[in-house]
Design a protein that fits this description.
With 228 residues, the chain is of the alpha/beta class. It has a single domain (40-225), classed as Rossmann fold (3-Layer(aba) Sandwich), CATH 3.40.50.150. 36% of the residues lie in helices and 18% in strands. It has a 7-stranded mixed β-sheet, with helices on both faces. The chain is globular, with a radius of gyration of 17 Å. The structure holds S-adenosylmethionine. InterPro entries: SAM-dependent_MTases_sf, tRNA_(Gua-N-7)_MeTrfase_Trmb, tRNA_methyltr_TrmB_bact. Its EC number is 2.1.1.33. S-adenosyl-L-methionine binds at residues 59, 84, 111, 134. Pathway: tRNA modification; N(7)-methylguanine-tRNA biosynthesis.
C-alpha cells in the first residue's frame, strides 16, 4: 500500500528548453510513435507495452541515453522502461534506438515521480537504475533530490522481492545520503559492504571518465528488495 500521506511531491528537475538537433527531431517523429508511451494516470500494461514478458528495469533520468542504449544492447533478455523529462534527451535516445535497431526500450517523457505513482503497479519491476541524478548541490536545494525516504519507499514497493535498485553518483555528499536512505529502508538489503563495485553492465560514461581522470570519485550502490 502506498503511504496515504505520500510526500509533498519532489520536484527534482528544472525543465530546460535545450537545443533540439535536426537528428533528434527526426528521431522523435520517426521512432517516437513506436517507442514512446504517453503518460497517463493509470496502470500501464507492461506485457502489452513490450510485447513480451521478460525481466523489466525502470531507468529514471537517462539524460542523452548513451548508457541506457549500451545497457539495453548488452542485456537483450531484459526490457527497459526509461523515463526522462528533457526533450533533446528523448530525441537522442530515440536516435540511438533507430541507429542501432534496439527493440527492448520504451520511453515515457514525464516526471518519474508521477510515472511511479500512477503507471507502475506494486512488484512489477525486476530492477531500477538511477544514474547521476541531479545532485542539487546547495543545501537549500537538497530537498529536490530524488533519493529521499518516502520516494525510495514507493520505489521499492514497485520492485519484486529479490529485485534490485542500482544508483550511481559522482557527488560525495549525495552518495552519503543515498547510502543512509537505502540502509534505513527496512525492505532493502545492501548487496555490498557500503558502496558497491560498478557492475559490468553499467558503462563508464565519457563524463565519468573525465571525472575519474581528474581524481573525482564515483559511487555505485546496489541494494536488493528483501523477500517477503
Ligand atoms: C544529471 S542528469 C544525468 C543523466 C544520465 N543518467 C547520465 O548519467 O548522464 C539527470 C537527468 O535526470 C532527469 N530527471 C530529473 N528528475 C527527473 C524526474 N523526476 N523524472 C524524469 N527525469 C528526471 C533530468 O532531466 C536529467 O536529464
Amino acid at each position: 500500500m502506498d503511504n496515504p500521506h505520500f510526500m509533498r511531491r519532489i520536484r527534482s528537475f528544472v525543465l530546460r528548453q535545450g537545443h533540439l538537433s535536426a537528428g533528434q527531431e527526426r528521431a522523435l517523429n520517426e521512432f517516437g510513435p513506436r517507442f514512446m508511451i504517453p503518460y497517463a494516470a493509470e496502470a500501464l500494461d507492461l506485457d502489452a507495452a513490450f510485447g513480451r514478458s521478460v525481466p523489466r528495469v525502470l531507468e529514471i533520468g537517462f539524460g542523452m541515453g548513451q548508457a541506457t542504449a549500451e545497457i539495453a544492447v548488452g542485456r537483450p533478455d531484459s526490457d527497459f522502461l526509461c523515463v526522462e523529462v528533457h526533450t533533446p534527451g528523448v530525441g537522442s535516445l530515440l536516435k540511438l534506438i533507430g541507429e542501432q535497431g534496439i527493440g527492448n526500450i520504451r520511453i515515457v517523457q514525464h516526471d518519474a515521480v508521477e510515472v511511479l505513482e500512477h503507471m507502475l503497479q506494486p512488484g512489477c519491476l525486476d530492477g531500477v537504475h538511477i544514474y547521476f541524478p541531479d545532485p542539487w548541490h546547495k543545501k537549500r536545494h537538497n530537498k529536490r533530490r530524488l533519493v529521499q525516504p518516502d520516494f525510495v519507499k514507493q520505489l521499492v514497493s514497485r520492485i519484486k522481492p529479490g529485485g534490485y535498485l542500482h544508483l550511481a553518483t559522482d557527488w560525495e555528499d549525495y552518495a552519503i545520503q543515498m547510502l543512509e536512505v537505502l540502509s534505513a529502508e527496512p525492505a532493502l538489503e545492501n548487496t555490498a559492504d557500503g558502496y558497491a563495485p560498478r557492475p559490468d553492465y553499467r558503462p563508464l560514461t565519457k563524463f565519468e571518465n573525465r571525472g575519474i581522470n581528474l581524481g573525482h570519485g564515483v559511487w555505485d550502490l546496489v541494494f536488493k528488495r528483501r523477500a517477503g
